Every structure is written in structure tokens, then in C-alpha cells.
Amino acid sequence: MGQTGRVSQRIRMAVRVEGIVQGVGFRPFVYALAARLGLGGLVGNDVDGVFAEVEGAPAAVKEFLLSLERDAPPLARIERVTAAPLVPDGCTVFAIAPSEPGGTRRALVSADTATCADCLAELADPADRRYGYPFINCTNCGPRFTIIRDVPYDRPLTTMASFAMCGQCAAEYHDPADRRFHAQPVCCPACGPRLSLLRPDGTVVPGDPLTAAAGLLRRGQVVAVKGLGGYHLAADAASEAAAAALRSRKHREDKPFAVMVADIDAAGRLCEMDAAGAALLASARRPIVLLARRPGAGLAGAGLAGAGLAGAGLAGAGLAGTVAAAVAPRNRELGLMLPYTPLHHLLLREVAGPIVLTSGNVSDEPIAYTDADALKRLGGIADAFLTHDRGIHVRTDDSVARAVRGRQTLIRRSRGYAPEPLGVRTAFRRPVLACGAELKNTFCLAKEGRAFISQHIGDLENYETLRSFTKGIEHFKRLFDITPELVAHDLHPDYLSTTYAAGLSGVDLTAVQHHHAHIASCLADNGADGPVIGVAFDGTGYGADGTIWGGEFLVADLAGFERAGHLSPVPMPGGSAAIRQPWRMAAAYLDAAAPGFPAGLVPAGVAPAGLVPAGLVSAGLAPAGLDVARRNEADWDAVIQLARRGVNAPLTSSAGRLFDAVAAIIGVRDVINYEGQAAVELEQLADPAERGSYRARILPGPPLQVAGTDLVLAVVEDLAAGTDPAVVAARFHHGVAAVIEECCTVLRDERGLTVVALSGGVFQNLMLGTEVAARLAARGFEVLVHSRVPCNDGGISLGQAVVAGVRDAARG
Ligand SMILES: [Zn+2]
Ligand SMILES: [Zn+2]
User: Fold this and answer.
1) Distance CA 704, CA 699 (A)
2) Of 257, 309, 502, 704, which is most buried, counting CB atoms within 10 Å of its CB?
3) Rounded to whole angstroms, how far apart are CA atoms 796 and 807?
4) Can you give the pLDDT at residue 100?
5) pTM attached to this predicted model
6) CB burial class (10 A; 0-12, 13-18, 19+) of residue 127?
């Protein structure tokens, strides 16, 4: 064919884009792109996403298809683009087609997103009509999931419904060339929400709310601030007195507070960051990022090693760019986040220093997100409320993340991530609901190739969280048009989530063992099917044999598992009391390690015969390190008796309880104030420079048994020899890592499996997780770790969903 024939040649293509492509500025993007390339045609929304027809020169159409994915708007998450040829009709104009009625029902809802650079520029521009306006947003940023009441995602079905757009906002909203085209929360000072500052009695503080709130913060007061997914409590992060007041009023004794800093530079003054950490911090999802503190940046005394630093000379220092010791006691890390709403940006600028920004709740209750509830529950904590009249529809906590070896690791997947779906390898034959775990609950609704994991619901142990759980499930069912036919739940018969599942009618139920769900979650996170050696180390999970598991080596795929190894079980004296009081686990482990303890541990000739710990201790003969018995002398013998008789002392192979026992023996703590605290502080204590390790025997199986008591004995002997507790803590960590490596190697030899999946909350322990992954990799294993969902119980719902799905597919 001659050259002239090609010049005038036109083609027309039907294009379909699936993924998160509605409510994110996709149609204006397509419109502008087509206009730039001189293409005719149209673009519109329908039930599956965005459809377009483009017509023009072949090169231009080709460029259009390339740009579609490459240059998509920041909030778009394209899952699939397909194109099919059509007959050209000579069309040269490009138009936006009206949406089909009900057309957005199956489309995906975007997560809430941090204020974009364009909006920030307007926010800071005195000539802009939205200058200093705390609710500025556009199609590329702002609230989404937290304001959506129902689908289709349209303003009347959001909490913006009561704000009628002014003429200027309406013009922007309807202009395809505008950045605010079809941005549902678009508004301005003339027509949108307004800030107010309230006293705890609900009366209005006169004057500019933002300036006044910043003034209160600078004077050391606690201010409740309404955010995207709920209320925060804010305080001057540099003020020892303010942080301490917030702690005592919240009844939060030790758990670290998150800190919001103005920008990356401010973050860099407090913490050390690699490129991945900085990218995570600055990402539009804006999680709280756990980062290593810079030496001298207000590091509080780290447990035994540095006690006494706390508070020294810092009280009243004000907003000096350091962080008060009371913000994150005994922790080498600090949880930082950057502002993610215009209100945060304005507040941080006004305060001119880092602020504590912690969840608006008392103790472990769910965060307050309605105005009335916030005033009621936080009235005794906050000195004032910086609030506004845009409603929050869905309570959504901040997400928490960490960059590990250059890779994102989520500790809590919530605001900024939910409800974005995760793709799975094997499509679900029937729609699935997975009810998740008891603690750190999330649920998951899944259909076809997608799993929609909920925001963080919390611990399902009070009415309020259970209500979030049941309401949340109904909300997700509507939003994503999923009617579950298959319901997965934990094996534990008494969990509220199990009871909930059992109460549903017209569905098939599947029980999924807790640690199998962990490993399946890790597989799904990595797009893998198994079989693998699954190492599931966590606190508590109901085992297939009715005991409490938690230090498990499973040979598992998505459909099933075999318990190939585990920590040797020990009694948990007092049941859940042993979780709150790690010294009880110390007693159980010591008694299991050396029956008759402490007699068996005391050098011959030193120990009086037939002694009880109290007698030994009062005689001044207890070797160093056995102080745990002395500290808990009053109840020690009774607890040992509970353990021996097996009365209210269920057996557990939990790795979390082993860490608890060692933490108590070393003297880190006997009683915890938040879940996992003893283990967290044990890790913080451990000397990073120490290379020595303890050795635990592996008793032949199947299933193999790891003698945790060997590690406990080694700890005691080292302490008795006067070894530094920080060194002992490190050697214990290395010992656990070494025995995991050894166990995996034995299983590889037996089963021929070369892939290991690591899951369970214990792997949030950075020292342990990093070492285990490195040791296994050095041994030639392929190591799967989590990145898209947490390794803790927040990831359980995904695991349950894929297990249910694969079992269902096998039946079908
Ligand atoms: Zn924006
Ligand atoms: Zn307006």
C-alpha cells in the first residue's frame, strides 16, 4: 500500500478500563488526553468502570492507549485495560457520555487520600478563593471512603449531601477540563463545611478556631481534632507535661503515641529514614510510619538500659523540635506521620512544631467519630474540640506501616488503604465473607478476583466494636454489591465472629484454623499457592486439637495444612490472666524447664533442701535473674500449682507466651498494659551488637517439637552468671531465629519444600523477623513475608477468604 493511503487512514477502538477509575478524575483525564491527541469519540462510566471509544490516526490511538495506563490520575488503580476495533464513523469531536443509571454500583471506591500538591498550592495562595480553607480537595485528593454512605458514589449519598454547591464550585464540578470535575466533596468557604472550636461542654470558643486551637496546644493543652476517619487527641509533642497529661487522662500508660510533623525535613530531624521509609511517609496514603529515632532526638530511656533519662530537663521545653520522653517510653522507634488533610497542614503550620496525634478514645475503646460521641467520651480528656460539620460515615483508624529492607510492611491496614481491593490468583467461585480474628479484627468480602478487606475494626470484645463489625459488613455488601454465599470464620467456638457467622442463614460455613489463615494470608499477599513451610508465630490461636497454638510450623497450601512442628506446650496458669501477667508464663516455663524450681537451678550446696522460692529469696540466696519469683512471691506457688494440676491452665505452644516468659525473667516487665508490650520491650532492650545465641533442641516428630524451655534455661544461666540483660535479650532473639532456621531445614529435608512463609504477629518483631528471613535466605530458602496486609491478626480475614475460596473451588 502507498504512503498516501496511510496518511488519511483512521481507526476506531472500543476501550474498557477496570479498577478504581471512578471518582478519581479519570474521565477528565481521558477527555484531555483525547483532545491533546486530536481524537474523536467519547468516555463514560458504567457498572464495570470506564468505557471509551476513540477514533483518529493509528499512531494517535496507539499513543492514547499507552498514556491511559502510564499517565493515569494519581488516585486511579488500573486493574485491566482492554481494546477492540470498531468501524470508524468519521467522528472528530470528543465528549463525556452521561453515566448510566445505577452505573457506578460495581465500581470500586477509592480510599481517602492526602491533600495533593495542587490543592496545597491553592491553600497557601492568598489570591486563591480557597486560601486557608481547611476542606479544600479535588478529584486527586480528599475524603472518599469515610464520607460515602451508599453507592453510587455521588454527592447526595455522601456526608457532603447537606452542602449545596455555590455557583463557582458547581461550574468547576461540571467542567470536564477542571481539576474538580465530578469531585464529589468539592466545596469552598462560601458553600462548604466550617470549623469550630468547642469547649468540652459544647459551647463555642469565639475567634478563629484554628488560631485558638494552636494557641491551646502551644500552652500544653489537649485538643481533640476531627480528622478523616475519627477524632484524634492532639498535644504538644515536645512538652513532657502535655504528653503525660494526655497519657493519664486517656488511661494509656505506656503504648507509644504517634507524632505528626509538618514535612519530611521535620521527620528527618527526629528519625532516621531510608528512601523507602521516606516514600512511605510521604505517600498519598499517609500511614503512621515507625522509624528509628535519631540519637538525642528525645529518646526516652530504653527500659533497664537507660532508665532515668525520662523527663530529665525536658519538661516545659516547649515545641523545640524534640519529642518528650512520655510520647514513646522505652522505644527506639517513633511513629511519625505527615499531615494528610488541609486542616492538619494549617494546624501544623500554626503550631510550628510536632504534635502528638493519637486516637480519640479512652484506653482500648474504638475511636470516637461522631460529634456527639466525641464530646461525651472525650470530654474528660480534651480541653477543647477542633471540629467541623462534615460528617464521618465510617470510623477509620490511621494505618501503621514500616519500611523493612526497602519494602512496605503494614502493621495496621486502614485509612488510606481500605477499601481498595487486593487481587487474588484464584477467582472466587462464589462470593465470600471472611469474619476475621478476634483481636485486631478486619473482615473481608470477596468476589471474583478481588478481596475487599475492611478497615481496622479492633478487638471484638465490646458492643461498640461488634457493632462496627456488623454494620461494616452490611456497608461493604452494599458498596461492592457482594452477597456472600460462603462464610469463613475462626475455628474458635466462642469468638463473637464465630457466633455471628453461625447466626447467618442461607450461607455455607467454613471454619479456618487461625494459623492456617495466617499462612494462607501470607501466600495470598505474595500471589502464591503453596505448598510451603509456614512458620506462624503469634500470641494466641485456637488449635485443631483444642489447645492454644502460636508457635507453629505448618506444611500448608491454601486448601489445608498439616501441623509439622511446634513449640513444646506449656501451661498458661490462669488462662487469659497469663496474657496480662507475663510473670505467670515465667513461672510456668521455669517450672517446666526445671521442676522444683528454683532448686534445680541453684548450684549444689547453695540451695537449702525443699525450699520454696520465698524462703530462698528471703535467705538472700536467689541467683541473679530469679528476681521474677521474688517480685511475685505472694502468688508464685499458687500459680505453679495451677500449672502443675492443669486447672485453669490450658496448654499453649504460643511463641508470644515464650517471649513474655523471657521478658519477665529478664525483668523487663511482669504485667502488661497493652497487647504484646513485654515482647516489644524485650526487643527494644536487646543489644543490636550482640552476636551470641542460645540453642534449643528439636525433639523428633511428627510433629517436631521445639524445646522452648532450653532457651529459658539458657536465659536463667546467663543471668545467674551476671550477663547484661541487654545481651541476654539479644541472645534469646538469636536463639529463636536459629531454631526456626533449623526446624525449616529439617522439614525441607523431610518434605522437599524450599519455600517458607513467615506470618503471625511475632514477626512484627524487627530483630527477629529480619534475622529469620536472612538466615533462611542464606540457607537457600525462598522466603515469603507480608507487605500488602499485616502479618498480625489484621491479615487473618484475607487468609480465611482465600482458604474458603479454594476449598469451594475444589468442591465445585
Ligand atoms: Zn487536590
Ligand atoms: Zn463553593
Assistant:
1) 6
2) 257
3) 17
4) 60
5) 0.90
6) exposed
Task: Give the ligand at the shortest distance from the Cα of 192.
Answer: 2
Instruction: Report the separation in Å between the CA atom of 360 and the middle of ligand 2, taken as the mean of its atom positions.
Output: 30
Q: How many CA atoms lie within 13 A of 554 on its CB side?
A: 33
Gap from CA of 122 to ligand 1 centroid (Å) = 9
* Cα angle 273-278-280, degrees, rounded to a multiple of 5: 125
Other C-beta atoms closer than 10 Å to the C-beta of 342 total: 23
Q: Which among 72, 67, 83, 78 is positioned nearest to 26, based on CA atoms?
A: 72
Determine which helix (DSSP H) or strand (DSSP E) holds 346, and give its type and residue range.
helix 342-351
Other beta carbons within 10 Å of 14: 14
Neighbouring CB atoms inside 10 A of 340's CB total: 25
Closest listed ligand to the CA of 172? 2
Rounded distance from Cα 138 to ligand 1 centre (Å): 4
d(CA 231, CA 233): 7
pLDDT in tens, 32-46: 899 999 999 999 887
The sign of the dihedral angle between the CA atoms of 314, 317, 321, 327 is positive
Calpha distance 481→498 (Å, rounded): 23
Q: What pLDDT does residue 92 have?
A: 86
CB proximity list for 733: less than 8 A, separation 6 or greater: 683, 686, 765, 767, 768, 771
Which residues face 232 on adjacent strands? 225, 359
CA 37–ligand 1 middle distance (angstroms): 25
Q: How far is the CA of 186 from the centre of ligand 1 (A)?
A: 10
Residue 406: is it exposed, middle or buried by C-beta count within 10 angstroms (0-12/13-18/19+)?
A: exposed
Nearest 5°: phi and psi at 757?
-110, 130
Q: 299: pLDDT confidence band, cut at 50, 70 and 90?
A: very low
pLDDT in tens, 222-279: 999 999 999 999 999 999 999 999 999 998 888 999 999 999 999 999 999 999 999 9
